[in-house]
Design goal:
44% helix; 252 residues; 8-stranded parallel barrel; 8 strands; alpha/beta; TIM Barrel
């Protein structure tokens, strides 16, 4: 991998990224040239296949932006395929308890610390040119990001953040608000209070912590509160917003 999500801790600053849902390398390159720090290639809410993910990781490397893959679920196969592309990190959704967190780590690390399937000929190992040091380097460099997005994950948060190998915590405000019976109201005081509490707990354990925002003022607010990374909107959402803005302006 050319750039690592682990650079975040080393940099001492907040990272800003965006989600990629359109299966086009150009979208990743645009995000890179716009100077986002990372992209999250979404395999959960899209129909991406492994070859598409590899192409998007290549585009990220070409545009000097950190590639992260959001897998569909805690799965040995999904995590193995995502990391074999050479992605710097994986976002693992709906981590709701210790067992799920432990599985996410186990399937993302090679032995002796995990059970990730080892193949020397994958892209992440430069198709074999990386040599035997690849396995040790991958265990050091790959970041496992646990996405906490429901009431059960909030309930079991203390045990999740205590799992060795969970490198970063991502608080998903939309699903969190829905699970609290607030129907997507990410600005509700109960949601804000819950997020602030979870963020403080995770950072006290030494975790990098991030969240999702679709509003600039909201993103700045969370950065001001010490959040380490912001996943800002998605390519689909930003394109829709610009289209609506243009249509509204031109039809007046």
């Amino acid at each position: 991998m050319k750039r690592r999500f682990g650079e975040l801790k080393e940099s001492g600053r907040s990272f800003i990224g965006t989600g990629i849902m359109i299966p086009a390398a150009e979208m990743v390159e645009i995000a890179g040239y716009a100077k986002f720090d990372f992209v999250i290639i979404d395999e959960e809410h899209t129909q991406f296949e492994s070859q598409t993910a590899i192409d998007l990781v290549r585009a990220a490397e070409a545009a000097d932006i950190i590639p992260i893959i959001r897998v569909p679920e805690v799965s040995e196969v999904y995590l193995k395929k995502a990391l074999d592309t050479g992605a710097s990190a994986v976002v693992v959704p709906n981590i709701s308890d210790r067992e799920a967190a432990e599985k996410a780590v186990y399937y993302s690390r090679f032995a002796p610390v995990g059970g990730r399937g080892a193949c020397p000929g994958v892209r992440a190992n430069r198709f074999g040119a990386g040599g035997s040091s690849y396995y040790q380097n991958a265990n050091r460099d790959v970041t496992v990001i646990a996405l906490i997005e429901g009431a059960k994950g909030m309930e079991n948060f203390d045990e999740i953040i205590g799992v060795p190998g969970i490198d970063a915590i991502y608080i998903g405000p939309v699903d969190l608000s829905v699970s609290m019976g607030l129907q997507g109201d990410v600005y509700h005081p109960r949601v804000i209070e819950a997020m602030e509490r979870l963020i403080a707990k995770a950072q006290a354990k030494g975790h990098v912590v991030g969240t999702y925002c679709t509003d600039i003022a909201d993103a700045k607010k969370w950065i001001g509160k010490g959040v380490n990374f912001i996943d800002y909107s998605t390519d689909t959402t930003m394109f829709m917003e610009k289209c609506q803005e243009a249509v509204k302006a031109l039809k007046q």
